[in-house]
Amino acid sequence: MSTTSNDDSESVSRADPRQQSQSPSMFSPVGDPTRYSVAVDEDDGHEEEDFIHFPTSPVQHVLADQDLHDSSWQNFDDDLAEPPRLRLESDMNAPLLQNGNQRRATPLNGLNYLNFITYCANCFVSFNVGVRGMGSQLPKSVDVFLEVQTLITPARWAYILWAPILVFEAIFAIAQLLPNYRARPIIQQGTGYFFFWTCLVQTVWTLAFAFEKFIVSFVAVLCALISMACLLTSQHYYRVRGRKSLVEYWLFRFPFYLHCGWLILSSVVQFSILFRYLTSNVGVQLAADVVALGAMLPAATFFLTGQPSGPDFVIPLVIIWSYIGIALPLHNPSDTLLATYDHSDIVAVRDSAYFFACTVGLMLIPRVVIWVFQEFCTINVVELDDASTGV
Fold it and tell me: Are 131 and 141 in contact (CB under 8 A)?
């Protein structure tokens, strides 16, 4: 009898430690934080497991002030990359809930609703006021641009860029409501309230511009640009670490790069319109046009060479689009421009726009080539020390 009892106890003690640590760890929504084990993947494709049991979890105090429902493992794209080399065994194998059911989706919060409502409100104002002019009761935004035309007012076809901006931001507004994305750090902390403020001041800009309040409209579009730049900067610090997520980029970052590029153009055009509104001195107006035209070049240079996260090609491409949209109408300038400026002035601004577009293009092409080689023609080499290889 005693021998059988000893054998039974010995068999229990030799049981697979996975069966002894089935509670989720501190990284899951529920579970016993005192049961903790670590699994380390080896390079030969086999899994060598060293189970370390602690009386209390070593991460218990580190994560005590964090929301357990918004932990880092929830934001990992299983379909885009492999799990980390060092991971919690209980996270990868144990059930997510103590009753064996799948983890419940994080509920929507006020920020998710605010992003969606703000986008809808901005679309409503932009379409009904900016595009339709409140049923012809107000001038359309394009008509106001042409009425106070400057040397850097882009062609009418250039404004078609608003269509993809609104489409991609609609995708963002819907995607950030979905269970897989709503709690991601790039939404909750990265985007934060910056999207709300951008849409809010852009709505103010649309209304002020329709009523030809050019000082208010210039301040509003400048605030929208600053808010969008802050959004992109904030997203840089809360994006997925250690790898590049295409899903995250196209859903949550690309729409704002596109929007930011257009806001740069809108800001410089509003700057030129402001001087046309404030003074009738042609020399001052011409100087404002030249300064505004050159102001887009440093922005393109920064996003190609100065970003800590590496080059981004969206804003430089939008700026090239803007320069071409400015230069082409000056081949056949309107009567307003011909009556205001000398022909030599118009030709100088037109050629300068082409020159700046070519300059951005010459900076863009080698950066694209380098990016292609880095992404598709290089091999990532990981050096392992003797301790990690077990030698």
Answer: yes
Residues across the chain: 391
pLDDT in tens, 65-102: 444 444 444 444 444 444 444 444 334 343 444 444 45
Vertex 150 angle, CA 146 and 152, to 5°: 105
Burial of 382 (0-12, 13-18, 19+ CB in 10 A): exposed
Contacts of 127 (CB under 8 A, 6+ apart): none
Residues 6+ apart with CB under 8 A from 68: 26, 27, 28, 29
How open is the CA angle 179-184-190, to the nearest 5 degrees? 140
Distance CA 39, CA 51 (A): 7
Question: Residue 39's beta-bridge partner residues?
Answer: 49, 87
Percent of the chain at pLDDT exceeding 70: 68
Residue 22 in tokens: 């089935």
Cα Rg of the chain, angstroms: 28
Candidates 119, 317, 128, 151; CA nearest to 207 is 128
Q: How many CA atoms lie within 13 A of 155 on its CB side?
A: 16
Q: Please state, in angstroms and rounded to a whole number, the distance separating the CA atoms of residues 214 and 195.
A: 23
Q: What is the pLDDT of residues 179-200, one digit of tens each?
A: 999 999 999 999 999 999 999 9
Residue partners of 19: CB distance under 8 A and separation at least 6:
none
Task: Give the C-alpha distances (Å, rounded to integers) separating 233 from 175, 247, 258.
Answer: 21, 19, 15
Closest CA to 277 of 349, 226, 216: 216
Nearest to 176 by CA among 222, 133, 117, 234: 117
| The two three-digit tokens of residue 300, written as one number | 């393109």
